[in-house]
Specification:
The chain is of the alpha+beta class. The chain is built from seven helices and eight strands; from the N terminus they run H-H-H-E-E-E-E-H-E-E-E-H-H-E-H. It has a four-stranded antiparallel β-sheet with strand order 1-4-8-5. The N terminus is likely disordered.
Length: 200
């Protein structure tokens, strides 16, 4: 009996084609969030925009918490834990796509805690630069530059990596970046974001 090539074949990044095919059906933020949660739990080897079958070692300690956020209305695109080490400092942050209601909940979180939310409405461009990673005193990662408006290149990339319907949904979604202003602190940001998304 012939083996279905999708059960074993990988793309040039080592991502399983069978896991990629599931993304062809994901046309909502909750659907994309569920598939991302599965990837974070090690149950999938494909994530759009990630040129590897899994995440990096830095993400391992926060993967479970990120999976919870993805199942609660925030389709995460990027994140990092807080770090304080010789020549290296990071602020914990998470960024992703969500509904206007989730964006409002995360803005409200920023109003009652010391966590900071930067929210970008659909079609809104932003060129802010908030440092969140330093290496040897140099800024290497910033937040504040929004994903929107999602241009032709991004629409094409999301269409190719997932599907056209999801690309259009993301172009019409809010993009939020939430960070902990305290360098190196962990254990505060992700639980607070989850609580904000699931309250009420």
């Amino acid at each position: 009996m012939a083996t279905d090539r999708y059960t074993t074949e990988q793309d040039r990044f080592g991502r399983l084609l069978a896991d990629r095919e599931v993304w062809r059906q994901a046309a909502t933020i909750p659907a994309a969030g569920e598939l991302t949660a599965r990837w974070l739990e090690g149950r999938s080897q494909y994530q759009p925009g990630t040129s590897a079958p899994g995440f990096d070692e830095e993400t391992r300690p926060i993967a479970g918490a990120l999976a919870g956020l993805n199942r609660s209305g925030l389709f995460t695109k990027e994140s990092q834990p807080g770090v304080l080490a010789e020549g290296h400092a990071q602020r914990a942050y998470v960024a992703g796509f969500c509904s206007v209601e989730s964006a409002a909940a995360l803005l409200e979180l920023s109003g009652r805690t010391d966590l900071v939310t930067v929210a970008h409405a659909p079609g809104e461009a932003s060129q802010s630069s908030i440092p969140v990673t330093l290496r040897d005193g140099e800024v290497v990662t910033v937040l504040g530059s929004s994903e929107g408006p999602v241009g032709d290149d991004q629409l094409r990339d999301w269409s190719e990596e997932a599907n056209e319907s999801l690309a259009l949904v993301l172009a019409d979604s809010w993009y939020v970046e939430v960070f902990d202003p305290v360098w190196g602190r962990n254990g505060v940001l992700l639980p607070a974001v989850l609580e904000a998304l699931t309250a009420g």
